[in-house]
Structure formats: structure tokens, C-alpha cells
């Protein structure tokens, strides 16, 4: 049992309650009849378990004491070992100090001995070297041809030959020219020969990419006059292969990165060599590439696109290569770029304006050709005014209105094409124009865009649209196309504003040309807005004029003064007017936007209210007719709700209240007149409506109108 208890105690986690539950369960299972509960048996089991646990505790306590004693003995043993190791370590430190002192003493003696040997050997080495140079000099001083020494013929001893001839050449420069002229000539000839061999050897090492050999040869050549030829040879051979097929720009940066790593290892002055490497790319490779690409100017648009692409890519290339340039050459790449494109940038502005003019003119011609329309002079404003005057005074229409079948002659696609062309031109202008010329060129390009897009396209379409608006007070419901003109004009103006903010203003802001740009644009927008307002006014007048004429001719007197009882419904004339006006309101909402929309809807509603109000003033109303009039006004009110105008809604609410004066009993007139809606109205307006009642003559002398007609 003790081993079983140990197993249970060693379980993680150990729960006392679970241990007692298991003990109780085992005790019950050991009974013959497990269904009977025996407290005595359970008590005995608990007593026995307690005894067993005490025995187990004693054994564990004895085991712990043995382990603690073993641990104490082991701790003492390790402490003695550590003490001995510390003593040995201190002894080793002492020996190391003594050894270090002896090494320093020996090293000092060796250094002193080395200095003595050097003092003896240096003069001897110099003497040997001087003797060697004198022997070579004697060969060059001797009369007749030079006896070729092995050092100058053995390719393996080229470095040694270079050292000798370089020193001989330096010595020969101090010799007087008369007596030693021939000797100096021989030395110079051999000097040039060795120098040429060194450069050839350098080129050979470059082909095999032997960096160490190239570095050694470059170091030797740095003492020669032809060191620059070595650099030139390296650059020429490095740039001999095409960079990247037809597109030269792709391969230049990787090429420079690759050779910069080599140049840093080979040459003592890598920044200067790299600057010359890049200079060669610009002056030879890039310059020739640009001249080839830009030699054809017949297609001006293609030429400008190519110029922009080459110039922008060259500027980006300069930015990428700047890390390889020395600090004293900060603006060198910029100057080289200007030299490459100087001739082309000089005439850029003139060609850009000419090209944009041609493109915009061509787009306009193609558009009107697609519409089979021949542009005409739009100077018919006076004629239009005379037609309106005659039609109004004489009640005749002297000429038919030309509406071109509803064609607006405005094209969003055409506008987008022109704006795209202008955007591309302005983008090129910002890059290719100098800082001083940029504002003037940008304004010229903007003027071209405004001329063709706004003056020759939008303004022309507005003139045609104004002429196509039907005359007011016609008997036939007017066909209105000017709202479509308004919608397309708004879209084009929004597109133009977006282009101006993104492309034009950045070019002219904070310059003297900015005020010129703002002034021109403001004048143009005012002209456009004036014609839009004029067209909207004519369109509203045409619709409202038709309503006026239609009600005059179609509204029967008996609608509001029936001789017999009729069903209380809206009149046919009212329903026709409402049915005709609803599409107009929808069209206005579709074509007009912003604050202008609310203004137009309000103006439309107020004019409609005036016509209906004046129309009702011409009628007489009995009780049944008054009911019909109220139904008509309710229909008008439903119609004008779509206008979303508080003012118009209020006007028609007042009109509805005034119509109630035609229906109420005479004794209730005072109460209705003092209501919230009519109380603040002028008494004359109220009197006018009351006088429209058929029973007005009967009630005017009664007390029902006291305070109203007085």
C-alpha cells in the first residue's frame, strides 16, 4: 500500500479531496455487498491509512536526512577543490607575468639589432641600386645604338624594366640638352616603348579580368606620363560593347555599378577615374544616341514625345549616377545633360505651341466633320431679340427656330482629347522649359487650350443653344435642349478646372504671369456663366410662357364655375400642365448641379406660381368650382415638391389657403383670413381673391367682410 500511496502523491497536481474520494471508493468496493454503506469499515480504513502515512512520513524523513548529509559532504569536497584551483591559477598568473617581461626584453633587443642592420643595409642597397642605374645609364650614354639589356626584352621582368626606365627618365631630365641630347632621346624612346608595353599588358589583364595584375600595372603606370592613356584604355574597352540593345539607358547604371567596384580595387584615385568613365558615356554614347533619335522633326508630336522621354530619362540617369561622382563634380552631370539637349531645348517652346495648336484644330475639324456641320458666324443675338419683340407685340412667329434636331454640338470626348493633349504639353513644358521661360510658355499653352476648347467649341455651342431655345408664350410645348448644353458645359468646365489646378497653376504660381492667367480665366468664366444664365432664363421663360398660353386657351370658365353639380376632380388643363412640367423638372435636376440647381429650381417655381396666380385671378368661382380649383392647386403643389424649394412650397401653400377663401362659408371668412397662413398677407391680396366668389355681391354688404374690405 505504501508504494501505491507514493504513486498517488507523486501525481501532478495532487488533490487531497480526490485522494480521500478514491480511498472511500476502494473501501466500498472491497465490501461483499457494495450497495451497503459501512461507516465502521470506512473508519477502520481511515485509521489504517493514517498509520501507513505516518510510517511513510518517517521513511521519507530518514531518506531526506541521508540526502542532506550526502549533499553537505559533497559541498565540502568541491570547496576544497576550488581552493586548490585558485592557488594554481594565481601561480600561473605569476609565471605569465615573468614570461611577458622576458618577451618584452628580447623584443627590444631584436628591434635594436634590426635598426643597426638597417642602418648598415640601407646605404649598401642604395649603392647597389645606384650602381645598377649607372650601368644602365652608361649603355644609353655610349655612342651608337643601345645595347638591348635582358631586362627590356624579358616580358616577365616588365615591372623591373618599368622601374629602371622611369628612374632613368627622371635623371635624364636634369642633364644639359646639348651634350646629352642623343642620350636623352634614347632614354625617351625606351621610356615610351616600356610605357606602351605596360598599357598593352594592362588591356590584356582587363580582358581576362585579372584584377590583381591590373592593380599592379596601374600602380606602376601612375608614375608614368601615360597614366591617363591607361585610364582611357580601360574606359574605351569597358564601353566597347552595347549596353542593352536598342535602349541605351537600361544598361548604363548596371555597367557603372559593375565597373565602379573594379575601379575602386584597381586605381588609386577611383572617384576621378569614375567621373571620367561617366563623362565618356555622356559625351560620346548618350550624345550620339540622342542625336540619332531626334534627327527627324517631320512628325512634331513624335519628336516632342521623344525629346521629353530622352530628357527625363537622362535626368533620372544623372540622379542614379550621382553617387559615383566626386563632391567637386556635383553639377557636372547637369551641365552635360544641358549640352546634349541644348540645341533642341532652344526651340522647344515654339514647337510645343505650334503642335498643340495643330492638334486642337484638327480635333475640332474632325468633330464638326463627324456631325456634318459647317461652323457659321454666331452673330444672331440682335436678330433673336427682334424676333422676340415682334412675336410679343404682334403675336406672330416670323421665323422658325433652328434646333439642329437636339444636337448640342458639345462633346465630352473631344474635350477630354484636347485636355489630354494640353496636359501632355504642360507636362513636357514643366520639364523642358527653363525656370525663367516656364510661366510664359505655360500661359501660352493654356491660352491655346482656352481658345479652341472654350471659345471655339463651348462658346460656339452656347451661341447655337441660345438660338435654339423656343420663343416664350408659344402654343406648342417647347422642345428644350439647352439643359443638355448646360450639363455638358458644366462637365467640360469641371475637367478644365481640374487640369488647371494640377498642370497650369504649379507652373505660374508665385510668378508675374499668375495674375495674367487668373484674369483671363475669370473673364472667360464670366462670359460662359452669362450665356448659361441667359439660356436657362430663356428656357424657363419658354416653359412658363407655354403654361400661361395653354391655360388661357384650354382652361374653361366652366371648370371653376360649373352650372351643375360635377365630381370634384382636377381640371384637364391642370393635369396636362403638371404632366408636361414633370419631365422638365427631372431634366433640370439631371443637367444642372451645385448651387445653380437650387437657384434655377426656385426661379422656375416662383415664375410658375406667378402664372398660376394670375390665371386664377381671371376666373370666377362658385362652390363646386372652388373645390376644383383647390384640387388643381393641390396637383401643382405635388408637382413643385420635386423642386425642394422652401420658398416655392410656401408660395403654393399660401395660394392653397387663398383658394380656401373661395370655398368657405361667408360667416367663416373672418376666421380663415386671420389664420396663420393668411394673417400676414396684404389685405388687398385677400380682397382680390374673395372678389372672385360668385356670391361676392351678396356678401359684400354684410358684416362677414368687416375688417377685410375696409
From TrEMBL:
<keyword id="KW-0175">Coiled coil</keyword>
<dbReference type="Pfam" id="PF07393">
    <property type="entry name" value="Sec10_HB"/>
</dbReference>
<feature type="domain" description="Exocyst complex component Sec10 N-terminal">
    <location>
        <begin position="40"/>
        <end position="154"/>
    </location>
</feature>
<comment type="similarity">
    <text>Belongs to the SEC10 family.</text>
</comment>
<dbReference type="Pfam" id="PF20667">
    <property type="entry name" value="Sec10_N"/>
</dbReference>
<keyword id="KW-0813">Transport</keyword>
<feature type="coiled-coil region">
    <location>
        <begin position="50"/>
        <end position="88"/>
    </location>
</feature>
<dbReference type="GO" id="GO:0000145">
    <property type="term" value="C:exocyst"/>
</dbReference>
<dbReference type="GO" id="GO:0006893">
    <property type="term" value="P:Golgi to plasma membrane transport"/>
</dbReference>
<feature type="domain" description="Exocyst complex component Sec10-like alpha-helical bundle">
    <location>
        <begin position="160"/>
        <end position="704"/>
    </location>
</feature>
<keyword id="KW-0268">Exocytosis</keyword>
<protein>
    <recommendedName>
        <fullName>Exocyst complex component 5</fullName>
    </recommendedName>
</protein>
<dbReference type="InterPro" id="IPR009976">
    <property type="entry name" value="Sec10-like"/>
</dbReference>
<dbReference type="InterPro" id="IPR048625">
    <property type="entry name" value="Sec10_N"/>
</dbReference>
<dbReference type="InterPro" id="IPR048627">
    <property type="entry name" value="Sec10_HB"/>
</dbReference>
<dbReference type="GO" id="GO:0006887">
    <property type="term" value="P:exocytosis"/>
</dbReference>
Amino acid at each position: 500500500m505504501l508504494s501505491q500511496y507514493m504513486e498517488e502523491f507523486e501525481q501532478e497536481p495532487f488533490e487531497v479531496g480526490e485522494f480521500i474520494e478514491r480511498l472511500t471508493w476502494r473501501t466500498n468496493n472491497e465490501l461483499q455487498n457494495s450497495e451497503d454503506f459501512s461507516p465502521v469499515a470506512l473508519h477502520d480504513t481511515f485509521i489504517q491509512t493514517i498509520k501507513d502515512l505516518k510510517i511513510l512520513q518517517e521513511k521519507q524523513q530518514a531518506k531526506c536526512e541521508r540526502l542532506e548529509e550526502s549533499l553537505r559532504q559533497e559541498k565540502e569536497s568541491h570547496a576544497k577543490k576550488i581552493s586548490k584551483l585558485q592557488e594554481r591559477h594565481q601561480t600561473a598568473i605569476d609565471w605569465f607575468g615573468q614570461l611577458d617581461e622576458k618577451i618584452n626584453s628580447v623584443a627590444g633587443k631584436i628591434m635594436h639589432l634590426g635598426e643597426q642592420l638597417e642602418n648598415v643595409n640601407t646605404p649598401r642597397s642604395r649603392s647597389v641600386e645606384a650602381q645598377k642605374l649607372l650601368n644602365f645609364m652608361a649603355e644609353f650614354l655610349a655612342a651608337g645604338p643601345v645595347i638591348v639589356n635582358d631586362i627590356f626584352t624579358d616580358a616577365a621582368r616588365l615591372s623591373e624594366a618599368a622601374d629602371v626606365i622611369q628612374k632613368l627618365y627622371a635623371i635624364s631630365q636634369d642633364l644639359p640638352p646639348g651634350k646629352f641630347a642623343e642620350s636623352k632621346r634614347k632614354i625617351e624612346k625606351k621610356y615610351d616603348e616600356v610605357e606602351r608595353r605596360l598599357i598593352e599588358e594592362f588591356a590584356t589583364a582587363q580582358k581576362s579580368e585579372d584584377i590583381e595584375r591590373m592593380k599592379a600595372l596601374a600602380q606602376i603606370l601612375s608614375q608614368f606620363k601615360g597614366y591617363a592613356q591607361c585610364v582611357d584604355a580601360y574606359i574605351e574597352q569597358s564601353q566597347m560593347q552595347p549596353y542593352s540593345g536598342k535602349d541605351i539607358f537600361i544598361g548604363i547604371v548596371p555597367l557603372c555599378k559593375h565597373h565602379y567596384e573594379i575601379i575602386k580595387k584597381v586605381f588609386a584615385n577611383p572617384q576621378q577615374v569614375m567621373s571620367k568613365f561617366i563623362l565618356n558615356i555622356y559625351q560620346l554614347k548618350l550624345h550620339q544616341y540622342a542625336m540619332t533619335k531626334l534627327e527627324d522633326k517631320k512628325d512634331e508630336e513624335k519628336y516632342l514625345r521623344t525629346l521629353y522621354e530622352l530628357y527625363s530619362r537622362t535626368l533620372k540617369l544623372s540622379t542614379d549616377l550621382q553617387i559615383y561622382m566626386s563632391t567637386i563634380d556635383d553639377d557636372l552631370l547637369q551641365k552635360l545633360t544641358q549640352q546634349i539637349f541644348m540645341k533642341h531645348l532652344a526651340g522647344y517652346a515654339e514647337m510645343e505651341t505650334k503642335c498643340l495648336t495643330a492638334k486642337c484644330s484638327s480635333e475640332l475639324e474632325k468633330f464638326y466633320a463627324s456631325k456634318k456641320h459647317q461652323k457659321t458666324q454666331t452673330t444672331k443675338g440682335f436678330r433673336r431679340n427682334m424676333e422676340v419683340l415682334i412675336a410679343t407685340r404682334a403675336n406672330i412667329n416670323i421665323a422658325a427656330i433652328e434646333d439642329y434636331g437636339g444636337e448640342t454640338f458639345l462633346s465630352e470626348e473631344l474635350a477630354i482629347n484636347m485636355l489630354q493633349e494640353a496636359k501632355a504639353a504642360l507636362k513636357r513644358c514643366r520639364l523642358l522649359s527653363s525656370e525663367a521661360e516656364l510661366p510664359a510658355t505655360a500661359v501660352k499653352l493654356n491660352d491655346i487650350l482656352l481658345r479652341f476648347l472654350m471659345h471655339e467649341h463651348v462658346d460656339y455651342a452656347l451661341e447655337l443653344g441660345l438660338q435654339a431655345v423656343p420663343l416664350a408664350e408659344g402654343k406648342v410645348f417647347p422642345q428644350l435642349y439647352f439643359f443638355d448644353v448646360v450639363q455638358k458645359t458644366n462637365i467640360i468646365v469641371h475637367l478644365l478646372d481640374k487640369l488647371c489646378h494640377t498642370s497650369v497653376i504649379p507652373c505660374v504660381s508665385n510668378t508675374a504671369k499668375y495674375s495674367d492667367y487668373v484674369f483671363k480665366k475669370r473673364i472667360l468664366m464670366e462670359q460662359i456663366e452669362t450665356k448659361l444664365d441667359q439660356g436657362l432664363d430663356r428656357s424657363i421663360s419658354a416653359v412658363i410662357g407655354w403654361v400661361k398660353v395653354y391655360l388661357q386657351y384650354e382652361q374653361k370658365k366652366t371648370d371653376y364655375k360649373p352650372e351643375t353639380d360635377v365630381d370634384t376632380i382636377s381640371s384637364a388643363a391642370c393635369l396636362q400642365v403638371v404632366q408636361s412640367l414633370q419631365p422638365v423638372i427631372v431634366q433640370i435636376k439631371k443637367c444642372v448641379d451645385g448651387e445653380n440647381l437650387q437657384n434655377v429650381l426656385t426661379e422656375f417655381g416662383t415664375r410658375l406660381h406667378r402664372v398660376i396666380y394670375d390665371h386664377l385671378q381671371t376666373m370666377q368661382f362658385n362652390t363646386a368650382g372652388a373645390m376644383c380649383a383647390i384640387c388643381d392647386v393641390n396637383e401643382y403643389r405635388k408637382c413643385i415638391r420635386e423642386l425642394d424649394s422652401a420658398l416655392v412650397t410656401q408660395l403654393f401653400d399660401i395660394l392653397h389657403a387663398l383658394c380656401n377663401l373661395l370655398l368657405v362659408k361667408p360667416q367663416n371668412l373672418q376666421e380663415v383670413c386671420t389664420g396663420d397662413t393668411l394673417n400676414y398677407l396684404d389685405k388687398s391680396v385677400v380682397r382680390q381673391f374673395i372678389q372672385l366668389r360668385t356670391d361676392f355681391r351678396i356678401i359684400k354688404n354684410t358684416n362677414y367682410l368687416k375688417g377685410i374690405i375696409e
